[in-house]
Amino acid sequence: MNYARFLTAVSAARKPSPIRMLTELQQRSPPSLISLAAGAPNPDTFPFESAVIKVKDGPEVSFDQVAMKRALQYSASNGIPELLTWMKKLQKRLHDPPTAASGREEGQMDMCVTTGSQQGLCKVMEMLVGPGDDVLLDSPTYPGTLAALQPLGCNIVSVASDRHGMIPAALEEVLSRWDPSDARRPKVLYTIPNGGNPTGASLTAQRKKEIYQLARLYDLLIVEDDPYYFLQFDRPWAPTFLSMDVDGRIIRMDSFSKILSSGLRIGFVTGPKPLVERVVLHIQASSMHTSTFTQLMVSQLLHNWGQDGFLQHIDGVIEFYRKQRDAMMSSAHKWLTGLAKWHAPSAGMFLWLELTGVRDTRQLIVEKALEKEVLLVPGAVFSIDSSEPSSHVRAAFSLSTPEQMDEAFRRLADLIREGL
């Protein structure tokens, strides 16, 4: 793998921050070290002294005065060591990445903590994508991805997909448009493999294998954005791209937003060490690091639980969302049969509805839905070209009660009938 060819000029030009390097060196040094180098504020001047956080199932997460001083101070840009160590062990257990034990320094797996997986997504795209580059993805897709890509001046190339995600034959057809020797051929493929936002689509294991082989053939990096990995309703879970990665061409984003807290903003980037290092350099120059307090709180919780306790918590989250999904499906069958088409999502939080006889749901939602006191997201906002009409809407089953979902779909059915 020649990672240099994938980097933008801006990313390749990034240099380590000397101050950040000294800060991180000091944190690994013995207590006897006397440092006059760090420009950190003195935590004795901070007003916060201690904290105790109650946990639903398990021991409290607590910060005494010593721990609180650390929690309120600067920390390493790649993440605090105990959280990284815990997560690397979890990645090994769940995905067993071939490159993690390959012994090849150039492709060896590494990881960093990000302020939510959205920060990781933005920094990965800015590292890999420049003006005029072609980026492959399945459309419709997550608007946050489009928001990260469109200012970069790249060409966003849509690959056909269905309820099982990106179609390998369609990807091969798109890739065949470029000569293999063309230096401007696509370098990056982006996908949400499980419970995709907005469609709820999940790639099958067979499709992932075929897509990975195409990535090898055309020398692509795959950005595996997987925030709904822990919200897969059926076992066994499909293998990830990371678990297939014999070359070191997968950059994976994980998130705790859907399973621990969205407000804590904890995400992870896992991938080849040379690329993760570039992401960390960008973090050094922008946010410096994810909140130390947040990292320590999550780390203490995870260590209290252990991996088995964490996965037991995941089982409870899955069961909640499975019931929510089933309730929405029941209401859809009750009220929208003949008025819309959909498929049952096997992961995530969303139901993707195609409304019968409605050319553009934007007008329906923006102008008329509020009158009926029901709100969904019009499909156009998930399209590469948001000005194009879409007959789809996205419904989320994460927050509403089954009774609210039922009433919402009754109102939506009335709205559709009025427009027919």
UniProtKB/TrEMBL annotation:
Cofactor(s) in the UniProt record: pyridoxal 5'-phosphate
Q: Any keyword Cell division?
A: no
Please give the pathway this protein is involved in. Answer: Amino-acid degradation; L-lysine degradation via saccharopine pathway; glutaryl-CoA from L-lysine: step 4/6
Which EC number(s) are documented for this chain?
A: 2.6.1.39, 2.6.1.4, 2.6.1.63, 2.6.1.7
Keyword annotations from UniProtKB, A to Z? Aminotransferase, Pyridoxal phosphate, Transferase
Give the family, as the similarity comment puts it: Belongs to the class-I pyridoxal-phosphate-dependent aminotransferase family.
What's the stated role of this polypeptide?
Transaminase with broad substrate specificity. Has transaminase activity towards aminoadipate, kynurenine, methionine and glutamate. Shows activity also towards tryptophan, aspartate and hydroxykynurenine. Accepts a variety of oxo-acids as amino-group acceptors, with a preference for 2-oxoglutarate, 2-oxocaproic acid, phenylpyruvate and alpha-oxo-gamma-methiol butyric acid. Can also use glyoxylate as amino-group acceptor (in vitro).
Q: What is this protein called?
A: Kynurenine/alpha-aminoadipate aminotransferase, mitochondrial
